[in-house]
Amino acid sequence: MKNWQWLAIALFALTTGLLVNTTMKKDFVTLDGEAHQWQDFEGSWVIVNYFARWCAPCLREIPELNRFHVENKSVPIFAISFDPLSQEQLSELRDTYDIAFPILYSIESLPWPKAPNTLPHTIIIDPKGRVVKQLKGEQSAESLRQVLVELQGP
């Protein structure tokens, strides 16, 4: 084989590898095994809620977050445990508190720089994938709807 043929094969392999890596890369996996990239949600508002099993306000707001999830199917909502928990511990937590929306389990990348220092903490991501609001404290389905209305403007 000539040098140019080897070069062509190497370039093809490199290009294919980069393409596969880009399309197969996932930013997070939910407890249910669904893998996603944050860009999968571009065009939609997204809500991410940090919680902990030892945080009473976090646990109190779960029914309201469940209600928001059921009533607003076009707005994905995800939970992230503040504490590093195993998949089994997260599953038990989901079952114990009847968490109806996806919990992120394996996280490779987040569109914000670090975990919050207060709980509960809710992050609102706009349709362009930008963090536009961070809410500290317990939220209700109505407070989340109201924040989204305010952010969407007139």
Q: Can you write the helix and strand succession as a string?
A: HEEEHEHEEEH
What portion of residues is helical? 25-40%
- Structural class, judged by helices and strands? alpha+beta
Kindly estimate the percentage of residues that lie in beta strands according to DSSP. Answer: 15-25%
Q: Oligomeric status of the shown chains?
A: single chain
**Number of continuous helical runs:** 4
- The 3D shape can be described as globular
Major pleated sheet: 4 strands, mixed
Strand order of the largest sheet: 4-3-6-7
Distance between the termini: 65 Å
Average per-residue pLDDT, rounded, comes to 89
The Cα radius of gyration reads 19 Å
- Return residue spans where pLDDT drops below 50 for at least 5 consecutive residues: 16-23
**How many extended strands?**
7
If you had to describe this structure to a student in words, what would you say it looks like?
The chain has 154 residues and is an alpha+beta fold. The protein is 40% helix and 20% strand. The strands form two sheets. The chain has a four-stranded mixed sheet with strand order 4-3-6-7, covered by helices on one side. It has a three-stranded antiparallel sheet with strand order 2-1-5, with no helix packed on it. Helix 2 packs across helix 4. The radius of gyration is 19 Å and the shape is globular.
